[in-house]
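User: Structure please.
Assistant: Input sequence and predicted structure:
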Amino acid sequence: MQVRWPKPEWPAVIGATVEDGHSGDGRRVVAHVDTHSADVVVIGAGQAGLSAGYHLHRTGFAPGGGFVILDADNGPGGAWQHRWPTLVFDRVHGFHDLPGLPLPPTEPHRPASEQVAAYFAAYERAFDLPVRRPVRVRGVHSRPDGRLDVHTDRGTWTARALINATGTWTRPFWPHYPGRSTFRGRQLHTADYRGPVEFTGLRVVVVGGGTSAVQLLGEVSTVAAATTWVTRRPPTFNDEEFGPELGRAAVARVDQAVRSGRPPGSVVGVTGLPVTPEVRRLRERGVLDRLPMFDRITPDGVAWTDGRFVPADVILWCTGFRAAIDHLAPLGLRAPGGGITMDGTRVVADSRVHLVGYGPSASTIGANRAGRAAVNEIRAWLAPAAALH
């Protein structure tokens, strides 16, 4: 079957109008070009999406009619391009090469956002990956003929299979605490953080027990008038080097959750916080003297039921992210446990849909492996249908 695909100058065509003729009264008549078809649509061009694209291309899916990658960002880099500028490469907690093209030598004191974005851009060019951007997916719907409609702000793509690689960065999690709306200071999330300078001379409460919370707390503490660290549970620091055994234990725990239909949990909850030289320095300075989670927020700070009160100008919520999968809601994939029941990368409720960079594959090395696994399953699943044509 011949697949119609937009010309290379697609941004000027998709979601816009092209001249078609004139009406009898002299008005120009235009037609919308907004429907496309591909065997596989990949949503997201971060590590997981690019890995999937590599394996799709490598195993015979042609760019365009075979597969397309839809990315909501204006340029390459995935979530990495949005990380705070002070996250330099030598402070990145693990980064693995994409398949087929090693990461070039990095500059340890240059922002990771710049270096990873440049790497991803080179990767897209090297393997001729059909990334269309900016394209924002609004919803994915099932068609009567068994295919999927991927509705976007640039038209609709029809697909036989879907690889979702949207990650979590666009879904920051803000927990609810009494009085939050009354706070007169500033509240921001990790996703909003751009560096410590703006906190100079302020009293800052940092909420959260993950790696990002510790990193940001360390930076802010160098310029703030005072910092207070609060977490729901006492943080567990792990002096053991993060090796394959610990990594496998973390992946197995998260995999067990998604196989049973529960939301994927935190990897830090399994591995603990690594004790780096920076963590040791923060301990010596007393920055990591943690308090239990406050009970309410007041206009001027945070308070506990035992009478303790900490004044604050800023609350920095380092409370993590949730999977950005709202666009999949029309497919009804969620299990009673609140998550999506998975078998590897495949959604148990819908074999057409694979999630990569979700649950146990939410790491740079896990995303690579998940991309390959998803493509292998999709090839096997589509093979019987292909044999009929």
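Residues 364-388 form the longest helix (25 residues).
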